[in-house]
Specification:
It is a single chain. Helix content is about 50%, strand content about 0%. By secondary structure, it is mainly alpha-helical. Helix 6 (about 180-185) packs across helix 7 (about 190-195), helix 13 packs across helix 14 (about 330-340) and helix 13 runs parallel beside helix 15. It is globular, with a radius of gyration of 26 Å.
């Protein structure tokens, strides 16, 4: 189980909440997760796979004697700014410079689970560093915060199907033109059609892009309270020199995911994590996808080489042991001695084994 899923909307979060409610005799813990949104939001692109935090929040809570905890809003992938201090959330320990899991056996709110150092800092960032925070970052944080604040009310009044709100926006703001709607929010027409028809649910990044394009709040879209038509904001191209804040969401989200996984992921996996279409990702972020693919291929090649040399060394040792005991190093015997039943299944390892036998016969 991925540790971040206890904050999500799936079965893991539901089981976790059920156990905690039995232990605490409370019935309102579901609002601490995204369970109440499971019929609206899919899992893809929803939660971070690593911890993020605001050092200023930790520092002030620690100095004032308040309980340290990780707000739910810090776990959502689109949110990159602290809603209180208006500064970029951190994801690496300042002491050991390592990424942290959302929940592990050494987890302690406010402290690094690797080296144990305190992650807080009561000093607010300088105005120069605050310039990195864009209008889009603040807008996303505000809308996601309103969504989380609405969670307790969803027990008695569930949200309507999300396709109703999306269909209303297409009909009122785009005159039913799905192609124009898709171009504006930066997805393929097939993806947009799936959202409108209800075949697929748009991820949270897609919902935010839709709301931003027609200047409405995320909560208004979810309750199908769409205002009068306005001039849609086009989704800007990432490669444009003066891209607006919406394009920076793609850039920051993609770079954040890549950084969390040390670039050890493919373009397909990146598109799944961001909750966007793979074709759209390649169109909007061609340079990043190319760089990511090259690094991923290099990593695969390096891992394959390391695995080959490790297996070759194991084969050599096993053959040597068998020959020293005057036992013919057959395939089954080599695999038995090496304690690897499938060691000689690959052609490369078979080639190493046969080469060693040939050299020994020549001697």
């Amino acid at each position: 189980m991925w540790s971040q899923m206890v904050n999500g909307a799936g079965k893991s979060a539901e089981d976790f909440v059920q156990v905690l409610q039995q232990l605490t005799s409370r019935t309102d813990l579901d609002a601490l997760t995204l369970i109440l949104l499971r019929s609206i939001l899919p899992d893809r692109g929803l939660l971070r796979s690593r911890r993020s935090w605001c050092p200023a929040c930790y520092g002030i809570w620690y100095e004032t004697g308040k309980t340290l905890y990780d707000p739910l809003i810090w776990m959502l992938r689109p949110v990159t700014v602290c809603p209180v201090h208006d500064q970029i959330l951190q994801s690496k320990c300042p002491r050991c410079n390592r990424l942290l899991m959302p929940l592990d056996r050494h987890y302690r709110p406010g402290f690094c689970s690797r080296c144990g150092s305190f992650l807080g800092n009561s000093c607010i960032e300088t105005p120069e560093s605050l310039q990195r925070v864009t209008h889009w970052d603040r807008w996303v944080t505000e809308n996601v915060g309103e969504l989380i604040a609405m969670l307790p009310t969803l027990r008695e009044s569930p949200l309507p199907p999300i396709q109703r709100g999306v269909r209303t926006i297409v009909e009122t703001h785009y005159q039913g033109n799905i192609a124009e709607f898709a171009r504006t929010i930066g997805v393929s027409k097939t993806t947009a059609w799936g959202w409108v028809s209800g075949k697929n649910r748009p991820p949270i990044t897609g919902l935010l892009n839709i709301c931003y394009s027609v200047s409405i709040r995320l909560t208004d879209l979810l309750v199908n309270r769409v205002l009068a038509p306005a001039s849609p904001k086009p989704y800007p191209d990432y490669e444009s020199r003066n891209g607006s804040s919406a394009s920076r969401l793609w850039t920051r989200s993609a770079l954040q995911v890549a950084e969390e996984h040390s670039f050890a992921l493919s373009a397909r996996k990146l598109s799944i994590m961001l909750g966007i279409d793979r074709k759209t990702l390649k169109i909007r972020l061609p340079s990043l996808v190319t760089k990511l693919s090259q690094r991923y291929q290099c990593l695969k090649t390096a891992k394959a080489a390391a695995r080959f040399f490790k297996d070759a060394s194991r084969i050599c040792r096993s053959v040597k042991v068998l020959l020293e005991n005057c036992i013919y190093p057959s395939r089954r015997r080599v695999e038995t001695v090496s304690q690897r039943p499938s060691l000689l299944r690959s052609r490369s390892n078979q080639y190493v084994w046969k080469t060693i036998l040939r050299r020994n016969n020549d001697v």
